[in-house]
Amino acid sequence: MNEKELLERLKKRDSTAQKYLFDKYSALFYGICLRYAYTNDEAEDILQEGFLKIYMNIKKYSGSGSFEGWMKKIIINNAINYYHKDYKYRHYSDIKDIGDVADDIEVDEYDLSHEDLLKVIQELPPGYKQVFNLYAIEGYKHKDIADIMEISENTSKSQYHRAKKILVDKIHNLIAARENNIKNRLANN
Amino acid sequence: MEQNIEKLFKTKFENYSQKPPSNLWNKIHRGLKKKYFFKTFTIITSAIIIITTVVLFLGNQTNVINKPEKSDKLIVNNRQIEQDNNIANENIEKDNVSDNNEIGQKVITAKSNVLYVDLNSDSAVLVYKPIENKDDNNQEGFALSPNYGCTPLTVRLENSNTDYEELKWIVNNKEYKNTDIVDVEIDKPGKYEVLLYRQDNGTSFWFYDSIFVEQTPVADFEISETPFVNKKVVFDNLSFDAQNYIWFVNNHKISNEFEPTYVFENAGTYKITLIALNGKNCSDTVYKNVSVEIPAEKIVFPSAFKPNIYGSNGGYYSENQRVNEVFHPVVFQDVVEFEMEIYNRQGLKVFETNNINIGWDGYYKNTLVNVDVYVYYAKGKFADGEDFSKQGSVTVIYEK
Questions:
Q1: Where is pLDDT greater, at B317 or B124?
Q2: Strands B232-234 and B203-214
Q3: B321 vs chain A: nearest CA distance in angstroms?
Q4: Tens of pLDDT, residues A32-53
Q5: Residue A137 CB contacts under 8 Å (≥ 6 apart), including other chains
């Protein structure tokens, strides 16, 4: 099925085409949802809602610009709206716990897995996580993030800055813990 | 090789895929069926509601006053709104700040020349004309003050002519009937339109004016540890909706940075003030008193700490790090020799170091020790040659 045919059939609510689209993109989109969610269950919820939105709004896709890009935008916006009520509350008790650490980090020799890093992202406080994902991974500009999240550009910048601090700190801890485990294992042998 | 944190996450997650749980498709499929059903249902229901409304509306049309129509006269208060962004900049240059700083409440007064518009022209384009007969009381609309400000703003609307049979205000789709004074509370930024309808002796008039409201920023900051004399302190900026910042220490400006660092030279209480400005004449001010202390001794040991329960980190700590996960002394002079031993209640040595840069992370043989009081013995030599020898107790606290 080529893209044109797929789109035609999706617009006619053809369930074979809908299943085909799901099989082709669900893994990639689940990967995105995991980054915005706190738990895997929530990621599944967000993905389900996102696919429903794609199917229900398929007629609004103009055909200009990539179809995948259009769908990604829906998935991301949906993930953000899912937590919209949360990041409006700006009092996070753990802000003061952020250490003042360097932005750069040596990681090459430690093979940090997707799982490790995903957990670190998932644990970011509401707001920070969305801003970090949008800026660092999706490549959005702070101005666009401000529009999507209904915050000021400056808030976006400061949240990004803080998110980075938290991440660096957590990765440091992760690496230190791992290093120590290795040392202990060597010592016990 | 040094790797940037953004690069790390971008390369790992840009095209990251993960198979979703297997029954998800069935859930989506069911959800779709439900949505298609409700969509059809909604279209039919909406059609019924629209038809009913139109029928009801046509039946009652004679008594409805909505918005001005083409044949009505609409009198518009014309004012010059000076969005003078320089006000914010002016204040940045100010070196002192008073306790009741009111930069954010600066109100730009309106020019009071009133022009009016009539909507009679066929093209329905608003045409501004000067007032033809100034003595005609009917043409006096209403006073509005202030017409520009920062959230939250209370605006008073006052009807200027009390001879009427019917009076109605429309502010932001809300109606107020037959009252000469209305106080409107505005807590969201935006442009608000005010319409006044007045009818007397069979003549009806519409008056129009608008209010601009800007978002007031929230100034907030924190200093997370007790500042000591001659030790660098970072002010944590927690402000929102602001673009510019002015920091003051005892009413003297010290910085425009987002998060400045500062060194207090003397002990005592300092007043730290932060003004957060949004560049649109709105600002918020917060101040906090901070007491700066002289360290009682050249080396100080904390009385408690909270280890990282997720794993040992090898005692690594950084001077700037504010996370209290590693037990280590705070020194106010360089230490050239250092030794520290820590014992539990049973007299078992749980930790030992001769490196001032390595502290105790609360782990013994890679296992987190129990919540309890531990005893430390430390000795060494300062850079000035003076020896020191300290002992005391430290409490390990955590919740699993």
A1: B317
A2: unpaired
A3: 4
A4: 999 999 888 889 999 999 999 9
A5: A35, B9, B10, B13, B14
Split at pLDDT 50, 70, 90, the class of B103 is very low
In the predicted structure, residue B87 carries a pLDDT above the cut 80: no
- B3, B21, B312 member nearest A177 (Cβ): B312
CA B183 to chain centre: 26
Q: Which A residues in the span 25-44 are in contact with B, Cβ-Cβ below 8 Å?
A: 26-28, 30-32, 34-35, 44
Cα dist from A100 to A74, A150, B6, B18, whole Å: 36, 28, 17, 34
Pairing of strands B387-396, B304-305: parallel
B238 to chain A: which residues are within 8 Å by CB?
95
> Is the separation of the CB atoms in A101 and B321 below 8 Å?
yes
Query: In sequence order, which residues have a C-beta less than 8 Å from that of residue A188 and are 6 or more positions away?
Result: none
Write out chain A residues lying below 8 Å of B17, CB-based: 27-28, 30-31
Total residues belonging to chain B: 400
* Length of chain A (residues): 189
Residue tagged 């105790």 (tokens) = B360
- Angle at CA of residue B53, ends B48 and B55, nearest 5°: 95
Q: Are B273 and B253 in contact (CB under 8 A)?
A: no
What domains does chain A contain, in order, with CATH numbers? 1-82 (1.10.1740.10), 85-189 (1.10.10.10)
Interface predicted TM-score of the whole assembly (ipTM), two decimals? 0.78
> Are B353 and B359 in contact, with CB atoms under 8 Å apart?
yes
Task: Please say whether the beta carbons of B196 and B138 come within 8 A.
Answer: no
